[in-house]
Amino acid sequence: MQLKQTSPRNIRRPLAAATCSLLTGVSHAGGLIASGNNWKIDSALMLYAEKDRVQLAEGVLQVGKEIDDDEFVNVRMVADVLTGASPNGAIPIDSAQTFTRPSGEGTYSAAANKTPLDTSFRDLRGALNVEWDKPLSTYQRGIFSASLSSEQDYLSTGIAATFAQDLNQRNTTLTFGLSYNRDSVMPQGGVPVGLSTMPPFPATKTTTGSSKTKNVAEALFGITQVISRQSLMQLNYSWGKSNGYLTDPYKILSVLDSNLSGDLRASNPYVFEKRPDSRAYQSLYWKGVHQFANENVLNLSYRYFWDDWGIQSHTVDVRYRFDFKAHHYLQPHLRYYQQGKADFYRQVLIDGEETTLAAASADYRLGEFVTRTIGLKYGYEFKNGAEINFRMEVITQKGKDQAADAVGKLQNQQLFPNNEAYLLQAGVSLDSDILMKVLRGLFNY
Amino acid sequence: MKIRVLILACSLLLSACSLAPVKPWDRNILAQQKMQLVADPLEIYLDEHTYFSKEASSGGQGVGGGGCGCN
Amino acid sequence: MPRLVRRADYFVGQFAAMASDCEVLIDTDNQALAQSICICAVSEVTRLEHKYSRYRDDNILYRINQGGRMEVDEETARLLDYAQQLHTLSDGLFDVTSGVLRRAWHFDGSDRLPSAEQVEALLPLIGWHKVYWHKPEIHLAAGMEIDFGGIGKEYAADRAVLAVNALLAEQTNHYDQQTPVLVNLGGDLAINGPRRNGAGWQVAFDNGDKQTEGFSLQQGGVATSGDSHRYLQKDGVRYSHVLDPRSGWPVKHAPATVTVVANSCTDAGMLSTLALLHGAEAEAFLRGQGVPYWVRTEC
User: Which fold does the domain C60-148+224-296 belong to in CATH?
Assistant: First the structure.
């Protein structure tokens, strides 16, 4: 039998803390041991407002914790509320127009020469994403996540896994990711039959059931390379495929008279849009991060995206962070996005086409346009590691009208619904123990 | 266009391969939060969500994160 | 002034300070840089030697030991705080007031032990808990003394490396590769990182019988405590120079010397000193700390 031996106390950690404050003058009272047990909390509130259209308030709360050596759990909770009006796909004409609400319970109208906007939009969304980031071996990590997003008329569920392999003394990282999403759409008033007419109120649209599903699978291959002590870059190739109901059940197209005068046809001049039931897309994404000698950081990215609907797009995104003394920073942001149209994008249909075409959509997001973003972010880092930041961005979308669709007097109309939006965001990041201290201070206990 | 983009990307990677590896003790700058590929995850999440609902393209940076009915 | 010599792929500056042979190793090919680093390190060591030497009567230590209530500067306050923390951490084994025992003990290899009464008479003058210390004020009772002999050299080595780092940060771009530097104050070593080629500094020490053991130091510091030449011997019993401040008598069965590698030279010095004070338990204490160590027990 062995007697329990009282071994001398391990004093290495408190000793190291004491020596650290002796040598540097910075006190680490208890800090060396306590840290790592806290939750890291990031939160942000975003207000997004389009001129005369949609308004969105979105709150995000993300909490993360190191649950084991180098093993992390992150939970992100999102809530947003959307109100306002959205272009329904119909074109502005020289007289007032009346449309049936998607629910079939009433109408809304558009004034002469105004882009028709569906004012019924009001939606609440809640979303949850849980991520588990874990070392698989010395040079391998696995990141596993599950997500859920729920709205009144939409439910999205997804899972994803990313594997990362470090090579070359951790200067190169290869990543391989897979994701799968299964979504259901439950449109107000049922799922309209594609390219069927929107009958005048109080008649209701022809439907094919009350809900539809769509599946999305994505794969990603990436390489991240450390270039020097102050720069690194990443290159990703992604491939994705969507199947199922890819149509927007609320979007319609205007149908013109076959005389090509530019007038709507006399009866039932609106039909519901219809998109193909599959879409395969790919993208190449490059990003570089570089820190200059003055400690400012450039973050530059480029994406080329293309799909089998005929859409191609280029995105360039630049963020440049200026660090100032006393923990302030300013970060201007510029983004340029240019998109070519989908093969089945039409701003209008001519009477009869709705019976011959396999697919057609006037959704401006499938058209030919440019998005420009200019923004500025300000951040302040506290000594305890907490950060607050604010940003404001101005987003403009400007589209190109299709010459073939602008027939007759439509040449005098702005068919593409150009858009201008403002984004405001405030964010706070801190550690849970700092939060507790602040709360205790606030309530004096 | 596609071919030109691919050639650009490949040459960038090739130049990376010929570099001397950065040693662990020289990683103080790369370890800073502002030097991460995604320095502010919430900002990127909100941007991606916004542009997903306004444009036909999405993704590229990674997989997962969840969908929504906004497109 | 230090003497700067170019070796194969580095520079060495040699100087004498704190009763030891000292050197600064600078891993660079730039002689001007090596020169300024060397001067920086040496001036920091001499500054500290001047400030905390117990053989001078013109420094702060002397004024503290004159007794009476007085205010101390920030650096001295940090050293006193440290002394207090280590006194607590070591349950009184480490005590900066124990130097008065030198009045009774002279470890000259002879058999002249002090009498029990002599030692007993000194004990009231020993004990950190008897010191009034409320930063920045200190008040020593008459007859009491403090000295930083137990940490001075290790602290100086770490401070010299920090001074060099501050100089480098000022003079070079922050993304230039750091110039690797090693400060050696009579066997107590501090470094600011591995060598330019990424390898550690090759450290060898004389383990007594001319056999040289070596190891590679990537970061942190090394310190050795103990002195096999300082002892007393009477009636076949060997008395080491390591005195327990609580009894005033030598610690029994203490190793001759202990060498420790730790996060900093100061940490290494504290661990090796505390190991000696643990006497026969020295190795058990060191094992419990999880640091590399070498213990020599030969006479």
Answer: T-fold (3.10.520)
What burial class does residue A111 get, using C-beta atoms within 10 Å of its C-beta: 0-12 exposed, 13-18 middle, 19+ buried?
exposed
Dihedral sign, CA of A34, C275, C268, C259?
Answer: negative
**ipTM attached to this prediction:** 0.90
Provide the pLDDT confidence category of residue C288 given band limits of 50, 70 and 90. Answer: confident
The DSSP 8-state label assigned to residue A409 in this structure reads G
Structure tokens at C74: 């920030």
Cα(A9)–Cα(A397) distance, rounded to whole angstroms? 67
Q: Would you state the torsion angle of the CA atoms of residues A85, A87, A91, A97, taken in this order, to the nearest 10 degrees? A: -30
Write the burial class of residue C69 (CB in 10 Å: 0-12 exposed, 13-18 middle, 19+ buried): exposed
Of B55, B63, B71, which to mutate for an interface test with A (greatest number of A Cβ within 10 Å)?
Answer: B63
CA–CA separation, C76 and C83 (whole Å): 10
> What angle do the packed helices C265-277 and C282-289 form, to 10 degrees?
150
Tell me the CATH number at A270. 2.40.160.40
Region A356-372: mean pLDDT is: 97
| B59 close to A (CB below 8 A) | yes
Confidence class for position A440, pLDDT limits 50, 70, 90: confident
Whether residue B10 has pLDDT greater than 50: no
CB atoms within 10 A of CB C159: 22
C50-92 residue pLDDT tens: 999 988 889 999 999 998 888 899 899 999 999 999 998 888 8
- Smallest Cα distance from A19 to chain C, Å: 7
Q: The tokens of A441 are what?
A: 């201070």
User: Domain residues for A324?
Assistant: 29-443
Find out whether A431 and A38 touch, Cβ atoms under 8 Å. yes
Residue C175 is predicted with a pLDDT of: 52
- The H-or-E segment that residue C36 falls in is helix C31-52
CB–CB of C198 and B23 under 8 A?
A: yes
Among chain C residues, CA nearest to B21: C198
Looking at the domain assignment, is residue A3 inside a domain? no
Q: How many domains does chain A have?
A: 1
CB-based contacts of B39: which residues, under 8 Å, 6+ apart?
A297, A299, A321, B33
Cβ separation A149–B27 shorter than 8 A: no
Which residues from C are below 8 Å from B26, CB to CB?
Answer: 177
Angle among Cα A363, A365, A366 to the nearest 5 degrees reads 75
Contact A344, A357 (CB under 8 A): yes
Reported pTM: 0.66
- Provide the 3-class DSSP secondary structure of residue A123: strand
- For chain C, the structural domain boundaries read 3-53+153-197, 60-148+224-296
- Nearest-angstrom CA–CA distance, C110 and C86: 32
Question: Has residue A160 got a pLDDT over 50?
Answer: yes
> Do B35 and A291 make contact, defined as CB atoms within 8 angstroms?
yes
Indicate the domain borders of chain B.
Answer: 32-56
Chain A contact partners (≥3 CB pairs within 8 A): B, C
